Amino acid sequence: APAIWARGEGLRLSFDQLAQRVSRWQSDLRAARLPSASPVAVAVGNGADFPALFLALLRLGHPMVSIDLSLPVAARIELCRQFAIPTLLHTPSHRGERRTMAPAGPSPTIERLDVASAQVEPMASPLPASTVLVKMTSGSTAQPAGICLREAALAAGIRSIGEGMEIDHRDRMLLAIPMSHSYGFDHGVLSLAVLGTSLVVEPGYFPATILRTLEEGEITFFPAVPPMIKALAESDWPAALPLRRVISAGGPLRAEFAEAFHAAAQRHVHQFYGSTETGGICFETEPHEPAANSTVGRPLPGVNIELDAEQTVIVDSPSNFHGYLGGAALPRRPVILADRGEWTSCGRLRLTGRTADLLKVAGRRVSVHAVESRLRQLEGVRDAAVVGIDDPLRGDRIVAFVVGGDALGATDLPTGLLARDIRSIEAIPYTPRGKLDRALLHRMALDGRPPGATGDE
Questions:
Q1: Staple partner for 207: which of 24, 71, 235, 397, CB 3.0–4.6 Å?
Q2: Per residue in 351-382, pLDDT tens?
Q3: Cβ(199)–Cβ(5) below 8 Å
Q4: Are the beta carbons of 302 and 160 closer than 8 angstroms?
Q5: How, if at all, do strands 146-150 and 11-14 pair?
Q6: Strand, helix or coil at 201?
């Protein structure tokens, strides 16, 4: 049966051939004499080697630390130094970067960086017991952290997703989101390994390529992120496709994008809500219902959600993480997320913001999402994003970035939502995960210049 079609490599593997690839990696890794049970950082991008390496490392008892291929080589090595990871398996992300060792394994582009060449010491304190995977958080608002997961948590998480989303071995999954991210790992590696779902893997997400792959790959299930949904809504779709379900996660999907996508594709977008620390949380099964608007659906099977007095989302799930990279195991407990939410009358969860997105301006609490929403209502404004920076007199100062429209019109906003610093920008920056890159916006707000600008302003 077909397991993986890696379009970027021109490679098709059956499940038998994938098993052989896993066995070859086992042999190569065993021959490399890695420190016993030590973590191995992996940055290889979307392709057949990513799931093969995870399964090989799992069999050998080495936790895999999943790293984005977009991270420059120097930053990967620095991350290994920071967390004392002795081994790095990676593909250089730019042509001309110096190769550190001869290629190893079945793929000639993947290299191993050992302790000596990375100049790191093996991890002094062990990972939390039974860790098989470390997912790195995005770091869009803070320094990235390593989230440690056990095999049982991974299996429980994908089974919950499979049941809630009705995914099984008959589906063909198009994966254009990175497998190194939590969202892509679950719907890619885990759906393949646990549910038996065939994968068609894309190295990027250009709309024309995605549409061609949807047709040629006979795709039935397509996980996406909001920028991808927006781009595909502006494309001409083939008339007949077997695609039965499109989901969106990684950040809020604006209603106008979902409506435009439905008009272009004749398919509704199902909202999915999850986190690196807990796996899948909520899923919307009936996106066509008016009551589903602006919500992320109902809890997935086996997931319990509570809201505390501050409306903070608290998740109790068998797929919860059990510790941090470089730290001891945490006791079994619910996970308190940085999201705030509310329940609708029909039992759906509506996210109302993040705990870090409340600014204190002149003694008043201001939601950045409320300011962004009002800015988008201004004539001609196509998108907007808001961050806060320190102000010695007012506590936080609101800095607004606006795409299109007349930014000066924002001065008509109510006093509590008035941005004192409004800047025009060509495009709002997003991370590779499809999330608003507030860390970059914050640096831009402090610097006073958009990316690429030169000279003093």
A1: 235
A2: 987 766 667 675 566 767 778 877 877 888 88
A3: yes
A4: yes
A5: unpaired
A6: strand
Q: Coil, helix or strand for 323?
A: strand
Distance CA 27, CA 88 (A): 17
For 132, half-sphere exposure in the C-beta direction (CA atoms, 13 angstrom radius) is: 16
The whole-angstrom separation of Cα 389 and Cα 290 is: 37
Helix (H, G, I), strand (E, B) or coil at 347: coil
Tokens of 27: 């042999």
Enter the tokens of residue 9: 């490599």
* Phi-psi label, residue 231: left if phi above 0, alpha if psi -120 to 50, beta otherwise: alpha
Helix H or strand E encompassing 436: none
Tokens matching residue 173: 């999954």
Rounded CA gap, 273 and 277, in Å? 12
Angular region, 250: left φ>0, alpha ψ -120 to 50, beta rest: left
d(CA 234, CA 69): 28
Cα gap 77→221, rounded to integer Å: 36
Pairing relationship of beta strands 323-324 and 146-150 according to DSSP bridges = antiparallel
CB 251 within 8 A of CB 385: no
Q: Residue 66: which H helix or E strand, with range?
A: strand 64-66
- Could you give the CA distance from residue 20 to residue 306 in angstroms, rounded to a whole number? 45
202 and 213 Cβ atoms separated by less than 8 Å: yes
Nearest to 261 by CA among 297, 220, 211: 211
The DSSP output letter for 60 is H
pTM > 0.85: yes or no: no
66-85 pLDDT, tens digit per residue, is 998 888 888 888 888 888 88
